[in-house]
Automatic annotation (TrEMBL):
GO terms for molecular function: efflux transmembrane transporter activity; porin activity. InterPro entries: OMP_efflux, TolC-like. Belongs to the outer membrane factor (OMF) (TC 1.B.17) family. This is TolC family protein. Residues 1-24 form the signal peptide. Keywords: Cell outer membrane, Membrane, Signal, Transmembrane, Transmembrane beta strand, Transport. Pfam families: OEP. It comes from Pseudohalioglobus lutimaris. Its main location: membrane. One of its GO terms (cellular component) is efflux pump complex. The keyword Membrane applies. It is found in: Cell outer membrane.
Length: 466
């Protein structure tokens, strides 16, 4: 198992108030930045709206089995000018087994008092194709599956947002450090250029050295301007991720090195298989395909329905005078609209089998993909942290070399080329060191994202089996 050494509370979604407090302060920490982004990020709000829409879809599907109340009525105008009409009310309820019960009462006395009143109770039950919960609850199951899909998309969006915020946060810090280093390099370049000109006038160096130093000074000015441009862009990206409208960021507090205690690739892969939302979604799609196959097989059966009804009226129910002795009528019937040519149903069943196999292969592909992603993230994390000591040592060596070269050039024991070369090496080592620090912290978050443990998610959204 993997355990985070530094506590990460980014999974706690806070409302806008903490984010506003963070904006009001002079500085903001990485944790506060993450929490603000999780509360205010526009894209994440869209995911939340999708989950709300999915919740309504479940309610819509459940409403099919609620009591239905429908008014009934009509008006008839005959050729002779006589007008008649009826009105009434119908109540019905459908069960999840396919059966339906309805009660209706009507009266023909819409325009008079001598109309006939009728009362009818009807019960219907599918016998083969549409009987049972498998077919009749399909809309509810699909709505709930869509709800789970939306929730998983939200959790995956939260995890990706955390990684994006960390990357943007570290980018801003790195560019701020780079800008400070570039400005120091500008001061050193100006000082070196003055010293080189002085030595050139005294004949202790050549015009070539002065031109080389002047060229390096111009490159440093250009590099500083480019760093300022990158820093402004990085701050804008971070502000957008946090949902800050004015785009103004407070000062960022430097973040400590984020470290994660990791085990083997196999252990990390097992952890990812048990937590990744993509794997859980692939499993859900396979379950949907299996259920669709069962339904397609059911549709090959006859569509036969049993209907039983009782009707009572205060007038004649039949046109035949011999049958009008009773004002009560009981009927039982079998209704079917089955098409004897079932070629369509057979093809749909075969298609569902193919889709089921495709869903199973998707699970296998996800398993392999997750294993590859975890291994790459783990190797990147280990490489980034192992290189830190090397990059730090290179930076210290380059700094010592630059100081020595400038000192020797000042006393005339070396030429300007040694100084400019040491300055370029120092810049390269410094950039690599700053990038290495940033990559080492980001790689830890990326590794947790690859294992599906960066943010805390409900267990019912995680994979059911491995």
């Amino acid at each position: 198992m993997m355990r985070v050494r530094i506590a990460l509370s980014c999974y706690l979604i806070v409302m806008a108030a903490p984010g506003q407090q963070a904006m009001a302060g002079e500085t903001i920490t990485l944790e506060e930045t993450i929490n603000t982004a999780l509360s205010n990020n526009p894209n994440l709000k869209q995911f939340r709206l999708q989950t709300t829409s999915a919740n309504y879809s479940v309610g819509i599907a459940l409403s099919e089995f609620q009591v239905s109340v429908r008014p009934e009525g009509g008006v008839f105008v005959e050729k002779a000018g006589d007008t008649s009409g009826f009105y009434g009310l119908r109540l019905s309820k459908k069960t999840r087994y396919g059966s339906e019960v309805s009660v209706a009462g009507t009266s023909d006395s819409l325009f008079g008092t001598d109309g006939r009143e009728r009362f009818r109770i009807e019960f219907s039950q599918p016998l083969f194709r549409n009987a049972g919960t498998l077919v009749n609850e399909e809309n509810i199951v699909r709505a709930r599956q869509s709800q789970l899909t939306a929730l998983r998309a939200l959790e995956l969006g939260r995890s990706r947002l955390v990684v994006s915020v960390v990357e943007a946060y570290e980018q801003v810090l790195r560019l701020e450090q780079q800008l400070a280093a570039d400005r120091q390099a500008l001061q050193r370049a100006a000082s070196l250029y003055k010293l080189t000109l002085a030595k050139e006038r005294l004949g202790r160096t050549t015009r070539i050295d002065s031109l080389r130093v002047q060229l390096q000074q111009g490159e440093t000015i250009s590099r500083t301007s480019y760093t300022e441009e990158q820093l402004a862009s990085a701050k804008r990206v971070l502000a957008e991720l946090m949902g800050i409208k004015n785009g103004t960021l407070p000062d960022l507090q430097p973040s400590s090195l984020f470290e994660v205690e990791v085990g083997s690739v196999e252990a990390a892969t097992r952890l990812a298989i048990a937590n990744r939302m993509e794997y859980a979604q692939a499993q859900q799609q396979y379950q949907d395909a299996v259920r669709a196959t069962r339904i397609a097989k059911r549709y090959k059966q006859p569509n036969l329905k049993l209907v039983a009804a009782y009707e009572h009226a205060n007038g004649d129910l039949f046109f035949d005078d011999d049958l009008n002795g009773s004002r009560n009528a009981w009927t039982v019937s079998l209704v079917s609209d089955t098409d004897l040519n079932q070629n369509r149903e057979k093809l749909q069943y075969r298609e569902s089998l193919v889709q089921q196999d495709q869903a199973l292969e998707t699970i296998r592909a996800q398993h392999l993909s997750i294993g590859r992603e975890v291994e790459q993230a783990l190797l990147a994390y280990q490489r980034a942290h192992n290189e830190l000591s090397i990059l730090e040592g290179n930076f210290q060596h380059a700094e010592a070399r630059l100081k020595l070269a400038r000192r020797l050039f000042r006393v005339g024991r070396t030429d300007g080329f040694s100084v400019t070369d040491a300055e370029q090496a120092y810049f390269t080592a410094q950039t690599s060191w700053l990038n290495g620090q940033s990559d080492a912290s980001i790689s830890g978050y990326r590794l947790l994202h690859a294992t599906g443990t960066l943010v805390e998610s409900p267990d019912y959204l995680k994979p059911e089996f491995q």
